[in-house]
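Record type: monomer structure entry
Structure origin: computed from sequence
Chain ID: A
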Amino acid sequence: MGIDRAFETLIRKYQKEIYYFVLRIVGNEEDAKDIAQMAFVNAFRSLGRFKRQSKFKTWLYKIALNLCRNHLKKSRFQQTDELDPAMATDDDPSRSIIDKEKRLELHRAIKELPEKQRLTVVLRTYKDLSYADVSRILGCSEGAAKANFHFALQKLKKKLGKVYGLQKS
């Protein structure tokens, strides 16, 4: 019973965070709920294999990411151009900085990034994870995570600069 209670505590601690991470990847609330729940089920079933070489949070994100990838491959999900209202919550750091229209453009631009760059931006910016944690979740070196973030920011600046007339085409 002790492990069940401890795991319930972990679920309460990370449930919202994992849900919003999954939602940013799959773009659908129902799928995000299912995938987030499955991430916790898989983590519970695999607790014996958790080697503590990384933080539990990092391990859980990796499980969730793998489930997202499987879901996207299986469903060949096409993201819509609409910003899901659930994504624009107080957990969204861009909310207080830019208005809804600019947030929408930012989300569209992020969706257009290559997968590893997009995931690096989501993990670093929205989930405030370290490069070390990002590298463990994505299965790349810390240097590659830094490079992905750097190149993603360059692409976003170029794309959003054109959208708002801040730089020449």
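Annotation 1: Residues 92-163 form a domain with the Arc Repressor Mutant, subunit A fold (CATH 1.10.10.10).
Annotation 2: Residues 58 and 133 are 6 Å apart (CA to CA).
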